[in-house]
Amino acid sequence: MNIRVAGFLHGNARLMGRECVVRFILLLIGSVVALPLFAATDVPIATVPVVFEVTPRERIWDGTVEAVNQSTVSAQTSGRVAEIGYDVNDFVPKGAVIVRFTDTEQRAALRNANAGLGEAQARFDEAGKEFERISSMFENETVSKARFEQAKANHAAAEARVDAARSGVTTAEEQLEYTVIRAPFAGIVAERFIEVGELVRPGHPIMSGLSLQSLRVNVDVPQSMFKPIREIGKAFVYANDQRIVAESLTFYPVADPVTNTFTVRVNLPEDSATLFPGMFVKVGFVVGESRRLLVPEQAVVRRSELTAVYILEDDRVKLRQVRLGRRYDARIEILAGLAESELVATDPVQAGIYLKEHRAAVHIDE
Predict the structure, then answer these.
(1) What CATH fold (topology level) applies to the domain 103-178?
(2) 1.10.3660.10, 2.40.37.10, 3.30.565.10, 2.40.50.100: which CATH number matches 73-100+182-207?
(3) In what order do the strands lie in the sheet with 70-74?
(4) What are the pLDDT digits (tens) for 212-271?
(5) pTM across the whole model
(6) Can you name the residues that pair with 236 across neighbouring β-strands?
(7) Percent helix, strand and coil across the chain, each rounded to 5?
(8) What is the CATH number of domain 59-68+212-290?
């Protein structure tokens, strides 16, 4: 306020009264704050311009997640269930014992087989010594050729009996091993079909399980889109606010005669732990390219159901509500609320603090 204004106020205070003086001062203050509060160069906030980028154009269909490794183990021998090592929803390492049967009969069969092998081996050793003795005598021409041929045949028969006895031992060992059922792969028990004490026969289902390490998605796509999907061979799985890049695609060569759709198997990367077999997910198959308005994902502010970004407009920081699309790596699509070349704050926390500090000045200006 200059000297003339001060003199004017002092000389005319009696005429104008206190109320007029206050109004006049407010008028002067208003003329000052009507200027821009801060220039864009004075705002200590990092920004990036909103630009259109070329991204894959996708067609979305529903798919069902399934495990690559899933199976039902069954009994291979007769026995009574003696022990169950795991139950539904338990994680089972590969090769771990999941069920044991009583093995009295199998162990007795193995002992009998071993005894038969011992007898056959003794007979073979005896026949071998007899064959050596007869061979030596035959060379000295003290025994007939018929006697030599008989000793030779007895030795060969004894050797064959040893081989048969060894096969019997192997079979008995396998039958004993069948009383212990091990996990064919690491996974989770999905269902159990037996109880302790239950008598089972060969082929009786024991447990079913699956592995969450390797997953895939089956999708039925229309006949009209099968060709471009197969030519490009790229797809993305959307689930739980995540975008998973498919490792590869497997195409079924035969269409369903009822629905006229082709089944496409989307193979996922290892350890997609956010997905589980049986889930419905969205699968986007790349069928071309399109231009989309993208901003860094860290620039988006989420407050309850509100999604917004801080922008720098008319030399001021403002909070702008936006409507989001899909994620593309570290960026996210803006469907509405922003235009190309607008400046977006990359650090919304810093922008929010700055806006809060200057909110009083902004209210005066408004």
Answers:
(1) Helix Hairpins (1.10.287)
(2) 2.40.50.100
(3) 70-74, 205-210, 187-192, 91-92
(4) 888 899 999 998 888 888 888 889 898 877 888 888 899 998 888 888 899 999 999 887
(5) 0.55
(6) 245, 284
(7) 35, 35, 25
(8) 2.40.30.170
